[in-house]
Amino acid sequence: MPGQTAISTDATAPSRNQIDSVLRAILRDVLGLDEAQVEAFSGDTGLFGHLPELDSMAVAGLLTEMEDRLDIVIEDEDVDGEMLETYGGLLAFAEAKSVES
C-alpha cells in the first residue's frame, strides 16, 4: 500500500499516538479516504454504516491491514459491530489487541 505506516516490532507496547497514527493510515489506504477527512476523525466519528467506503468487503481488508501493520492477531470472535461503529471504538480495540500481543 502507498506510504504504508506500521508499528515497529520492539519489546515495548506501542503508544496510543502510534496506534492512532497507524490506524488513520490504514483507513486512508484501505478505504481510499482523503487525508484531511481521516485526520478530522474524532472518537465519535461513525465508521461502519456511516462511511460508504467501509462496506462488508472493505472490513476484511481493514482487519487484515490492522493485523499486518499493528502486528496483532484478530480472531473471528473479536469482530463485532461495536468495534466498527466509531473511530474511537476501533482505536480502543486496536489498543487492547496491541497490549495482548
Written description of the protein model:
The chain has one domain: ACP-like (Non-ribosomal Peptide Synthetase Peptidyl Carrier Protein, Chain A). It has 5 helices and no strands. The chain has helices at 16-31, 35-39, 56-70, 81-85, 87-100.
**Helix and strand succession?**
HHHHH
> If you compute it from the alpha carbons, what radius of gyration comes out, rounded to the nearest whole angstrom?
12 Å
Largest sheet: none
Question: How widely separated are the two ends?
Answer: 23 Å
Could you tell me the number of beta strands? 0
* Domain tally: 1
Contiguous uncertain segments of 5+ residues: none
Q: What top-tier CATH class fits best? A: Mainly Alpha
Judged by helices, strands and strand pairing, the structural class is mainly alpha
What is the helix tally? 5
The CATH homologous superfamily is named ACP-like
Query: Any idea what the shape is?
Result: globular
Helix proportion: 40-55%
Reported by name, the CATH topology is Non-ribosomal Peptide Synthetase Peptidyl Carrier Protein, Chain A
CATH-scheme architecture? Orthogonal Bundle
Mean pLDDT: 90
> Approximately how much beta-strand content do the residues carry?
under 5%
